[in-house]
Amino acid sequence: MTDIWTQPLSLFGIKGKVALVTGASGAFGAVAAKALAGAGCKLVLAAGNANALEKEAEICRQLGAEVKTIRKRPSTSDVCEELVAAAADCFGSLDILVVASGMNKVAKINDLSPEDFTSVMDANVTQSWLLARAATAQMMQQPDGGKIVLVSSARGLLGHPAGYTAYCASKAAVDGITKALGCELGADRITVNAIAPTVFRSPLTAWMFEDDELAKGFREGFLARVPKGRLGEPEDLIGPLLFLSSRASDFYTGHILYADGGYTAG
User: Which of 167, 252, 258, 263 is catalytic?
Assistant: First the structure.
């Protein structure tokens, strides 16, 4: 066994582990896929956008990873079980689950239809629960258990004035799932944690990083509450992910790790 006192970084090693990433063509999912690929994982990547999924998969292959892609969203129990089975069938286990699939629909409460509210809750909450349920059944059969990483948001803790009732409610529910499953699965060698970012650079937020007046106005107001004084970058999510995916976090479960530059601390 590796002497952790002479090689403490070995605790963060995940080379050879099998990871399933849903929403792998999205902002957080693409970061997770590339980070896990670069760390030596074997990957099952799932997303509904076939072209974007294949693009991310090819990048991961160039980073040295074995990759299987599945062009499906985790919208039903059957699909979630299929994704988990694909990892076990292709690579022999499922060591890491990263649930990066989800959505948002922004509208004031009287402009947001009940159907839109339900669709956000389904995508962010129900699918997280279904994936955790399917993964848990597999991980319980494995001697080393596994790691489940959900994606929450600073908006699971804080409200927002611009029509985020569905999103805030969904991420608060993800936090609740994280804490409840952390308690439930602690004795089964399965850790369940969540990464909760605030605004970070992605195709959806690219406008916030521009130099026009709209972007500058947003940043001025937002950064006044961010102790680090900047918006997030994709690489800010890599460290938390590798920590929560590795042995280094074996004694950490049920936690919400805020990748927010101190935004929620103030």
Answer: 167
Which of the 8 DSSP states describes residue 126?
I
Specify the 3-state DSSP secondary structure of 236.
helix
**pLDDT value at position 145?**
98
Domains of the chain: 10-197+232-259 (3.40.50.720), 203-231 (no CATH)
Edge-first strand listing for the sheet containing 42-46:
67-70, 42-46, 18-22, 96-99, 146-151, 190-197, 256-259
45 Cβ contact list (under 8 Å, min separation 6): 21, 24, 29, 33, 53, 56, 57, 60, 67, 68, 69, 70
Task: For residue range 191-225, list pLDDT tens digits in order.
Answer: 999 999 998 888 878 888 899 998 899 888 889 99
CB of 79 closer than 8 Å to CB of 127: no
Annotation says 167 is catalytic: yes
